[in-house]
Amino acid sequence: MRTESSPPATLVRLLLLAAVLGAGGPRPRLDPAAGAGAGLGVHFAIGPAAAARLAAADPEDVQSYVAELEDRAECGTRDGCWVATDGQWLVLHRCVTAGPGESGRPPGPLTYAFLGTRRLAAPPDFFAASLLAPAEAARTAEALAGVGRSWLRSRFRLLGAGDDPAFDHAWEAFGDLRTFFARAASSSRAVLFTATC
Description:
- The structure is a single chain.
- The chain is built from eight helices and five strands; from the N terminus they run αβααβααββαααβ.
- It has helices at residues 11-18, 48-55, 59-71, 88-97, 112-115, 134-145, 149-159, 164-186, and strands at residues 40-46, 82-86, 118-119, 126-132, 190-196.
- α4 packs across α7 and α4 packs across α8 (164-186).
- The protein is globular, with a radius of gyration of 16 Å.
- The two termini are 17 Å apart.
């Protein structure tokens, strides 16, 4: 997993903004001193049977399954099984959902990249746990593939999320995310996203 230097100065403000996203389940416990340790995000590519199991799971089962995924030696970045966006996840989420699209709403499947279409019963120490079915993950992969550097930079600036080095770091994380989604889509996998507080 990639580690980060310091997060953008506005990360805590962005975490507070995320609290109004309408997510079900417990709200995050935000600690302004938490810095890069707040809201670390990871995406996992999982099979349809696991996705169905998670859709009906209680918080303890979700946590157990995530721990099982994290412990699995064969589930590594080389085969595209998971990708960590660490503290960049919320900045990137806000970038792809900030401001209206042509229809007056954020642009389609881009909005699914982090908070998915189905919120799961998140354990108390999770900020979020969400799920995308394989077909939704494929649409999201296609939407992510269409995002260019200049478009993402304009969204990043709109948020006031940091300077050019901060954007470069976010762009690198976005590239990793895009590659992950392309691999998940090519193998018809569902996508589980988790962010821990």
